[in-house]
Every structure is written in C-alpha cells, then in structure tokens.
Hints:
- By secondary structure, this protein is of the alpha/beta class.
- Helix content is about 45%, strand content about 20%.
- It is built from 8 helices and 12 strands.
- It has helices at about 10-25, 35-45, 60-70, 85-95, 105-135, 160-170, 180-190, 195-210, and strands spanning about 5-10, 30, 50-55, 75-80, 100, 135-140, 140-145, 150, 155, 180, 220-225, 225-230.
- Helix 2 packs parallel to helix 3, helix 6 packs across helix 8 and helix 7 (about 180-190) packs across helix 8.
Amino acid sequence: MKKRILVVDDEINICELLKMELEFEGYEVLTCTDGAEAIKMFDENNVDLVLLDIMLPSINGFDVCRQISQKSDVPVLMLTAKTDIIDKVLGLELGADDYITKPFDMRELLARIKVLIRRTGMSEKMKSKENNENIIKNGEIEINLISRSATVAGREIHLTPKEFDLLELFMHSVEKVFNREDLFNIIWKEYVNVGESRTVDMHIQRLRKKIEDYSSNKYIETVFGIGYKMRKN
C-alpha cells in the first residue's frame, strides 16, 4: 500500500511541485494551502506524514503542528523559508519531527521523508511486537499481562489478583493438568495442607463462573482424582 503524504503550503506552485515529485517516488499525495483545511484533511484521511509550511492563512503551521501532535503520532516535517533558530526550536517543541528550509534540495527532502516514514514503521512494529508479547489468547479468552485485565468474548471480567494469577497460569499452560497442591504452591507460594486445598477449589469455581457468564464453551475442566486443566478452544 502506498504511503500517503499531506503537503501543506500556501504557495500553489510549491504544492504542485512537491505533489509531482512525491508521486514520482511512489507516494500518494494530498495538498492544501490553508491551515484550517489542513487540520480537516488530516482528520478525514489516513496520513503517514505531514509536510507542513509555517506561513499559512487562517491557522499558522505552528498551531497546525501542535494540534496534530496532540492527537497523533504521525510525523510532521516543517517546511519553511524561515531560517531563525527560534522558529526551528519552536516547531520541534510543538511536536515536529524534522525541519528543512526553503529553498531546499529535493534529494535531501526525499531522504528526510524516507527516514521519518521508516522510523515510524519500525516504531509501529515494535509496539505491535510488544503488545503481542503481553497478550495471551485462548478461544474467546484474552488476557493482558501488563494491565492484568481479562476479557471473554470481548467483554471484560473483573478478577481478584489470585483469580487472575490462576487464569494466567492456565493460559500459559493450556491442556496441562495441575493438582491442587501444585496450584496452591505456585499461586499462594505456600505448601498446602488438607484444609487449604479447599481454597483452590473455591477460587477455581469463581473463576469458572466468571468465564462461563459470557461463554458457553467449557474452558477450565476438573480432572477427577487429579486437579484442573484449561482446554484449548
């Protein structure tokens, strides 16, 4: 899929030049010449990068940059005739990712665009990897190890800390049978005696009910004479 760039410049000839060059490089390009229109186009389209001039009618580039950075991680490359270091610093502080001044060399501009888009792509992959590593799924059950939350068929179930610990253990070890003593030792980190095995049973029963309130599938099974296991669904 082509990456989409929003070009915002009050000079129509600059917009047309950038559109032609960027499309030649394989990008999809949207253009506008007004700050308010830029915000509207950004909100209405999936954009991968914004090439943004500072001197714009209605809303200046600094304010456009600030509004975009407040609601999105899309990279912003400031494009302006101003060379004052204060303008550069202000743009970066408001959320711009890079800055280039007019007149610019097209090869340099294209290189900076490629770097920003590649960096964003790598960041998204890292986030996806991080999220995937912290999410465990089995059928309709999904748990998040970071937030310690659980959903069944898309609906959140509220678990006590020990109930979540039990569910996490089962989700990590689908189809593995645990006896009561093992569960008590792992979750409560104590050695079980005869009376304490009932604690495990009560927690399993409550966890099972919370899951089955939202699913007709049987997930936690009793293995008679041994203990419990989670079925793969």
